[in-house]
Amino acid sequence: MNSSIKALFFAFITFLTLNPFSQSTNKELFNRIDTYLKSSETNGFSGVVLVSKKGKIILSKGYGWADRKNKIPNSPSTVFNIGSVTKQFTASAILKLVEQGKIKTSDKISTYFAQTPIDKSDITIHQLLTHTSGISNRTGGFRYDEASKEQFLKEFFESELQSKPGTKHQYANANYIMLTAIIERVSGQTYNSFLNDFLFVPSQMNSTGYKSVNFSTERLAHGYYYNRNDEQWEDWGTTQEHLPYNDKHWYSIGKGDIHSTVEDLYKWNIALKNNVVLASNTKLVQETPYVAENDKKTSFYAYGWAISQSKRDTKIVAHNGSNGLYFADFVRFVDDDVVIIYITNVFLGPESEYVAREIGKMIFDSNYTPSPISRNIYELSFEFMKTNPSSNAAKLPVFLKKKLNNEFKDHAILNRLGFSRLKKEDKPDWALELFKLNVKLFPKDGNLWDSLGEAYLKYNMNDEAIKSYTKAVELGNESSRKVLNELLKKE
């Protein structure tokens, strides 16, 4: 047997040996991930997950409902709002214009807008892309309120900078809305049409878009939230129902609210990997870690992506996003050739943000088994209150710790629950006990003492209210002083 034939023979034998092993390993990984997500589904989890390893899809599956009323389940073809995962598409559109020779990332925004004031005249496209323009994260209004492009630009230019351009990273959606205005001005196209022509169509992403969607609305996932006042889950509807029907969507565009599926996002990953939409050197520019996102410098912002290192010292390129109901996470372990894409239409709590990262731990540690996502903390709390008298309030933290597998550390939860109950209770009951419990758990929070004072006032318990407001002021809550002084005058 000559050497070349021998090499082919051994390669074939190796393939036959390793392939069943690989299939077995992938099946085991599928089962572990699926078990985690199914167990979370029993607690209200709803969404879709796609996991790919070495170019092979290990899992692509939906859990829970896209539309509860009509019993439409989530599936890999369900269309979700992907939140700020949108920013990578806006950044890619800018880089496509760079490739076309129409702009440079070093260009100043004053090049494109003559009305740019002096304090913002030196802001560059690079600074917008990396959130280092100095613009405030409060610039712009509520995402689903109407605002024309002219109105947004006026607000942007009249706003007060929080830092000198280029000196500090501060994540602000207005940066990416401004980038969108530049895309439209330079290309002569609408944001949606430019992305469709140069990003979505070349990537064969047939179920992705901003407001112009060319698929059945039955494929759109409804967003669900727990209404604390009504003490029940409610259907928010779809993002398409909330976006302005006209072109006055300039608090939303470019920074979020693109719609897509895990299938399409995976196609996007392949298009990036194979340099279909951006040249390889452009992709390197996009994925360069330009500026630290935190003091510990564990994550850096690139162009529409966040860059970090795994514990194995491999590169992670990722971005997540949310509108408060939907949450999406797109994680690429580029050195390991592993991709995790996760989208949910029910935000149960902080654990809803960790799904992709938990799956990542499972992929790289065969012994790791995450706990299922817990039920919504407000739903659990009301469940406890319905089955217990308010005299049992002290037992609530123990109940929550058991259900959530975690210590109860959030000052705001009981405060919100207390105000929800305060609207309904004419006599002292759960509301008052929740406020009392909260100051017992977090005695150094002046705002909580203020809330307790407000509850005492409702029930004409003025002496107790004075004590609570006094404590609030002592702890630095100056907004309590006015009410306290008025109460003292009546004494």
TrEMBL record:
Transmembrane segments: none annotated. The keyword Membrane applies. PROSITE patterns: TPR. It holds the Pfam family Beta-lactamase. It comes from the Bacteria. Residues 45-353 form the Beta-lactamase-related domain. TPR repeats lie at residues 446-479. GO terms for cellular component: membrane. Keywords: Membrane, TPR repeat. SUPFAM superfamilies: beta-lactamase/transpeptidase-like, TPR-like. Its main location: membrane. It is found in: Membrane. PANTHER family: D-ALANYL-D-ALANINE-CARBOXYPEPTIDASE/ENDOPEPTIDASE AMPH (PTHR46825), PENICILLIN-BINDING PROTEIN 4 (PTHR46825:SF11). This is Penicillin-binding protein. It comes from Polaribacter reichenbachii.
